[in-house]
Fold:
Amino acid sequence: MSQSEPSSGPYPRESLSSYLRRMARRQFFADPIAYVRAGGVDWHDRSRDPDLLCGALPQQVAAFFALEPERVATLTIHPHLEHVPGEDRGSLRWWATLCQRTRMCDRCVIERPYGRIEWRLPVITECLIHRRPLLDECRLCGAMRDRNSRRWERFDCGHQVQRSAGAESLPVDLRVQQVIQAWLGIRRTPWTHANPWLIHALLAQRPRPVDVQPARQSLRQLWVEHRRARLAWRGPGQALRVLEQRGERMYPTQRQPVAAVGPLELVPPSLNDLRDIAARYGVLIREPSLQLLIAR
Structure:
């Protein structure tokens, strides 16, 4: 089989699994793995997730589709995992491997039916473009959409995705997603120090919310608790900042400041001091116990 045409490139932010399935369908292949293997790609392990592909296999896929290796790498989740600290990177990757459900935005699927790579990340629960929550199950019968499903417009039960669309996302959910997606390099929004803390706190929860609705509720709860803690310390923080700007003590006290102690100086005694010393010495001389001590 010949290589694919260079003009048939990936869509914006398309996942590698979606791209392989779309190109295989164009060549009348039902199985995307069989399609790339027929083109000479050494893909023997069929259990490998295309969106988590690494090693030498992405280079073979890039050569088969006449794409740059860097372009194929952007179709996986690895460029986004580079923003995650080392202690959370493996956990997030393993979490994405265990999640068998496919999340999707009903508006994005209607506009152009293909999979976005950010939908594979379990911490992504909202679509910031359409301000809609992502769907991972049919709201009519509860059936989910498996990762190996072929059609994006329907769930595995056959119901249309647009029939399961609910209300728009809450402002707090959108704010949380702005923070998370800015840190992962998905959206161009301001980066804050709360981004690593938020994802680390979500990954540390037990049990881990694999489904989209528990993940959304956990993120909302973490964000609300974080905001309450910041508001509780905002008043004292402002008061201490004003005191520091004035040059006052950070902790008020009623005690007077202790004067600095310098080196001791020898002061000669006065005449009255010498008379007082002589009188005390004479009294001591007249004591009987001292007289016996002097006689010995």
About this structure: Residues 16-76 form one domain. The longest helix spans residues 212-246. Strands lie at 126-127, 132-133.
